[in-house]
Amino acid sequence: MIEARGLGHRYTKDTWVFRDVDVTAHEGRVLAVLGPNGRGKSTLLRALAGLLDPTEGTVTASAPVAYVPQSHSAAFAYPVADMVLMGRSRQLKAYAVPGRRDREQAARAMEQVGIVHMADRSYAELSGGEQQMVLIARALAAQCRVMVLDEPVSALDLRNQARVLTILQDLAAGGMGIALTTHHPDHALHLADDAVLVLGPDDVRTGPAAQLLDARALSELYGLPVTTARVDGPRGPRTVVVPDLGPGRDPSAAAPRIQQAGASPAAKETAA
After folding, report:
1. For 245, phi and psi rounded to 5 degrees?
2. Is 55 found in the same domain as 162?
3. What is the three-state SS of the chain?
4. Residue 251 falls within a domain, yes or no?
5. Looking at the structure, do residues 138 and 75 belong to the same domain, yes or no?
6. Percent of the chain residues past pLDDT 90, beyond the cut
7. Beta-carbon neighbour count of residue 55 at 10 Å?
8. What is the pLDDT of residues 121-166, one digit of tens each?
9. Domain C-terminal end among 144, 162, 186
10. What is the pTM for the complete model shown?
11. Looking at residue 102, what is its pLDDT?
């Protein structure tokens, strides 16, 4: 659905972000782009979405693409329902206004993401995580066949991370092409069919996620020891990534004494 060949981009004459990248986002598959901060993941994603003209190479999209940025600020304090309804703009003719069908599709998108209760709230007053959910709903309302998302769960709590990842998995199962950046190798291992590892301007690796995202490659990617392990989750075994965070707290150390609020001086003395 999106095919990039010989892709390269630079912001200055002598400094390339990446070069000679071949990558494809397929129908019904999830493509995850991983790499340290500042290595060009978002730049690559914007090129795949058609929002950035690469310095060299070509990007071809065979279907309409919806883009969800990592962060976004609206010029006006639109209600959430109107922000989601904006996703229908590509379906409208010039100067046309959204009709009943458009509003129904926007309502379905809000329901799918779980933000119906926010419909009348001001988008500008939402938290970053809530705004991210609205942007995903807006992309769903557009009914594109490819969705490109930059760090879609970076600002979300654990529950909403799981919700969004499940939605993306379901969309791919229904035939949509998904491309996303993530700082969570666990998410990529759980969700992605294909992966891109951006190690440096001249070292961008692509391939099946299950083969590419092993402990050796992830250790090299992030510059610290990483191990992978299989754990039993509520829905069956999963592979998780365990980075070396250094020595942790000693669990045998004595826990701090907790003072109960409102205890009397006598009780405090007895506790002591």
Report:
1. -95, 5
2. yes
3. CEEEEEEEEEEECCEEEEEEEEEEECCCCEEEEECCCCCCHHHHHHHHHCCCCCCEEEEEECCCEEEECCCCCCCCCCEHHHHHHHHHHHHCCCCCCCCHHHHHHHHHHHHHHCCHHHCCCEHHHCCHHHHHHHHHHHHHHCCCCEEEEECCCCCCCHHHHHHHHHHHHHHHHCCCEEEEECCCHHHHHHHCCEEEEEEECCEEEEEEHHHHCCHHHHHHHHCCCEEEEEEEECCEEEEEEEECCCCCCCCCCCCCCCCCCCCCHHHHHHHC
4. no
5. yes
6. 64
7. 15
8. 999 999 888 998 999 999 999 999 999 999 999 888 998 898 889 9
9. 144
10. 0.85
11. 94
pLDDT digits (tens, 9 = 90+) for 203-229: 999 999 999 999 999 999 999 999 988
How many domains is the chain partitioned into structurally? 2
What is the C-alpha separation between 266 and 271, in angstroms, rounded?
Answer: 9
Task: Give Dmax (Cα) for the chain.
Answer: 78
Asked if 152 and 205 sit in the same domain, the reply is yes
Domain with 175 in it: what CATH number? 3.40.50.300
Host domain of residue 182: 1-63+145-209
